[in-house]
Hints:
The protein is of the alpha/beta class.
Amino acid sequence: MRALVQRVSTASVRVGDRLVGEIGPGAMILVCAMQGDSEAQSEALAAKIARLRIFRDDAGKMNRALTDTGGAALVVSQFTLAADTSRGNRPGFSAAAPPDEGARLYEHFIEALRGHGIEVATGEFAAEMAVALVNDGPVTIWLDI
Length: 145
């Protein structure tokens, strides 16, 4: 699985004019299930993100994890993270898991993250979404599991 994690002050996602997910301080997580991924990768990615020390401690160093801060996560499915741009100018997405499998692993990832005691808000799988965020730092981390 692949994720792009951003430390945020706030983040929200809308589908049309409906607000479907919103958090305060925490992490905005764009996530993509790749061909051949399983629940094991989904759980490993959730565990890695839950323990990822990207939040400031009292000395201002990135020494605290989401589980330490009590922050929330906004998780949005993002199949375009699987983009292959090695040939031509139009990205290919064949490395992404098929939609049914992607949806299943996306939901599994969300539940695994909640299993670490993290409050999770979400977007809607396969919907056209508008995401807004204030990147804190900025801190943006790319993860492949």
